């Protein structure tokens, strides 16, 4: 039996891209997935597709920037499925811009979603994982969590933060048998570049993304981390298109 079978997995940002692909991959391997994001129509579509293929999925409309909603999400998973084995903090956005443009609202949103959303996700599931002395928290960072480019200061700052938080979490919770994994994708086909408001920068990124790999590639890496025996933690993975130099 696969080590993913019957695991209860919460996935934020499950309405598109990497989150959607991961939900489908894990459900196909027998996980009970709990889909979270803001767009209900998209969550419903992902749920229906999973169910049509014989998988188990429920969803809850959730904004990761609300701690209250994240707690309700964890409570919903516990009520419906009785436990939380894996939390995947994947929701994120990437409105790149140079600092001089002072896109303060975009900085605030990135900090709220990419950093606070991850912290709230951890906070919502830790109590039940600590109680069971079992669990796995997977946080999605980026190659931009290792490297900084022009127009990427704030995005990179949030993704460096995800890595710092996840490593701190590992140090605190390894004694409680809680695994942590940092996933750092390179260019992956998704809706992420749509969050760039500057048209020139958007076309430069579209050009860069011509080498992008499918979101399934990241879903398979996440499945690999989950399916290891419980005494093995895959703490960090970088997954790039082979031809991506950056
Ligand atoms: N694609 C890449 O090349 C790449 C590379 C490195 C890292 N990443 C990271 O991968 C993660 C997933 O991104 P993606 O590429 O799959 O992009 P995507 O297709 O745009 O997906 C982003 C997801 O985040 C959700 N989201 C955004 N704000 C939210 C909020 N406030 N509350 C709840 N959910 C929210 C969106 O759902 P709703 O709009 O329905 O809420 C959507 O499901 C992000 O953390 C991103 O930084 C992506």
From TrEMBL:
GO molecular function: oxidoreductase activity, acting on the CH-OH group of donors, NAD or NADP as acceptor
Keyword S-adenosyl-L-methionine (UniProt): no
Keyword field: Oxidoreductase
Keyword Oxidoreductase found: yes
Source superkingdom: Bacteria
PROSITE patterns the record matches: ADH_SHORT
Entries under InterPro entries matching the protein: NAD(P)-bd_dom_sf, Sc_DH/Rdtase_CS, SDR_fam
Family as reported in the entry's similarity comment: Belongs to the short-chain dehydrogenases/reductases (SDR) family.
Name used for this protein in its record: NADP-dependent 3-hydroxy acid dehydrogenase YdfG
Organism: Thermaerobacillus caldiproteolyticus
């Amino acid at each position: 039996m696969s080590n993913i079978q019957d695991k209860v997995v919460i996935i934020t940002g499950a309405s598109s891209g990497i989150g959607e692909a991961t939900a489908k991959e894990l459900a196909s391997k027998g996980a009970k997935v709990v889909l979270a994001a803001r767009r209900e129509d998209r969550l419903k579509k992902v749920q229906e597709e999973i169910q049509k293929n014989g998988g188990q999925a429920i969803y809850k409309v959730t904004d990761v920037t609300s701690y209250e909603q994240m707690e309700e999400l964890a409570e919903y998973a516990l009520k419906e499925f009785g436990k939380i084995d894996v939390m995947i903090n994947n929701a994120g956005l990437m409105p790149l811009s140079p600092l001089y443009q002072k896109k303060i609202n975009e900085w605030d949103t990135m900090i709220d979603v990419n950093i606070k959303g991850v912290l709230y996700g951890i906070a919502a599931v830790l109590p039940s994982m600590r109680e069971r002395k079992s669990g796995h928290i997977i946080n999605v960072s980026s190659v931009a969590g290792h490297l900084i480019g022009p127009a990427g200061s704030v995005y990179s700052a949030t993704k460096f933060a995800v890595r710092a938080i996840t490593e701190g979490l590992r140090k605190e919770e390894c004694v409680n048998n809680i695994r942590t994994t940092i996933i750092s994708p390179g260019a992956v086909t998704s809706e992420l570049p749509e969050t760039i408001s500057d048209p020139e920068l958007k076309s430069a990124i579209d050009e860069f993304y011509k080498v992008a790999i499918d979101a399934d590639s990241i879903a398979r890496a996440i499945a690999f981390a989950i399916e290891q025996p419980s005494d093995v933690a895959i703490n960090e993975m970088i997954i790039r298109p082979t031809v991506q130099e950056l």
